[in-house]
């Protein structure tokens, strides 16, 4: 079973990825893990990636694509299948992945797309507040401080402010839509309603994967 998982920040993609790996035994391939392993093992692409990172530069697509290809060529993929998480991030990377899978004789079975309305994600992601004195973290909606509280006693990190979160969501939407459309044209996309209980989301995910296994 060879899968991609996609979803906007805050949609619960990471949680569902962990559940899929635990339940179905596929190899979880995340970009961060791949980069760390390739650099630690001093593979050709890992060494090349490190040369850019050490200079504080972005790793070019061709190197990222090469690291993905190295990982997908490993023996455990043929035995267990994979869940690719965090890649492709651009339509160019999606085209490169198509070529990689073709070169390796691997077929992609499906794309699990965790869908949550962006306005709900904005509320989820921009609600975090931190107490100035204790450093305790709360959420304005989902985990507010007990009782009445003085907002002046709390602050938000720049990354958690609504305008920053909205920009991040807008970028992810702009990058993700062409990728989803690309795989939708291939009949590979399975949309999952993400704005429900985590376990209910996973029940829907399991139904999709079970149908692909039959």
From TrEMBL:
Organism of provenance: Streptococcus saliviloxodontae
Keywords assigned by UniProt, alphabetized: ATP-binding, Cytoplasm, Kinase, Nucleotide biosynthesis, Nucleotide-binding, Transferase
Described function: Catalyzes the reversible transfer of the terminal phosphate group between ATP and AMP. Plays an important role in cellular energy homeostasis and in adenine nucleotide metabolism.
Presence of the UniProt keyword Lipid metabolism in the record: no
Residues reported in the UniProt entry to bind ATP: 10-15, 128, 137-138, 196
Residue ranges of the region described as NMP: 30-59
CDD domains to which the protein is assigned, alphabetical: ADK
Record's subcellular location: Cytoplasm
Subunit (UniProt): Monomer.
Pathway: Purine metabolism; AMP biosynthesis via salvage pathway; AMP from ADP: step 1/1
Family matches, as InterPro entries: Adenyl_kin_sub, Adenylat/UMP-CMP_kin, Adenylat_kinase_CS, ADK_active_lid_dom_sf, P-loop_NTPase
Reactions the enzyme catalyzes: AMP + ATP = 2 ADP
Name of one Pfam family that matches: ADK
Gene3D superfamilies, sorted: P-loop containing nucleotide triphosphate hydrolases (3.40.50.300)
Domain writeup: Consists of three domains, a large central CORE domain and two small peripheral domains, NMPbind and LID, which undergo movements during catalysis. The LID domain closes over the site of phosphoryl transfer upon ATP binding. Assembling and dissambling the active center during each catalytic cycle provides an effective means to prevent ATP hydrolysis.
Principal localisation: cytoplasm
GO molecular function: AMP kinase activity
Domain of life: Bacteria
Documented EC number(s): 2.7.4.3
List of residues binding AMP: 31, 36, 57-59, 86-89, 93, 157, 168
Protein name as catalogued: Adenylate kinase
Keyword Transcription regulation: no
Protein family: Belongs to the adenylate kinase family.
PANTHER family in the cross-refs: NUCLEOTIDE KINASE
């Amino acid at each position: 079973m060879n899968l991609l998982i996609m979803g906007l920040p805050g949609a619960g993609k990471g949680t569902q990825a962990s559940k899929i790996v635990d339940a179905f035994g596929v190899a979880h391939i995340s970009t961060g893990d791949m980069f760390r392993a390739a650099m630690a093992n001093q593979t050709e692409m890992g060494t090349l990636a490190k040369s850019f990172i050490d200079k504080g530069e972005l790793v070019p697509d061709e190197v990222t694509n090469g690291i993905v290809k190295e990982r997908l060529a490993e023996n455990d993929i043929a035995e267990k299948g994979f869940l690719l998480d965090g890649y492709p991030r651009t339509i160019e990377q999606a085209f490169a992945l198509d070529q990689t899978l073709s070169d390796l004789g691997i077929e992609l079975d499906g794309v699990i797309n965790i869908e949550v309305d962006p306005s709900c994600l904005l509320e989820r992601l921009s609600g975090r507040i931190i107490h100035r004195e204790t450093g305790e973290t709360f959420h304005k909606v989902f985990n507010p401080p007990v009782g009445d509280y003085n907002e002046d006693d709390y602050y938000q990190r720049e990354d958690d402010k609504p305008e920053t979160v909205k920009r991040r969501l807008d970028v992810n939407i702009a990058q993700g839509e062409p990728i989803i459309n690309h795989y939708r044209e291939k009949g590979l996309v399975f949309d999952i309603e993400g704005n429900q209980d985590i376990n209910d989301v996973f029940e829907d995910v399991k139904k999709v994967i079970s149908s692909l296994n039959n």
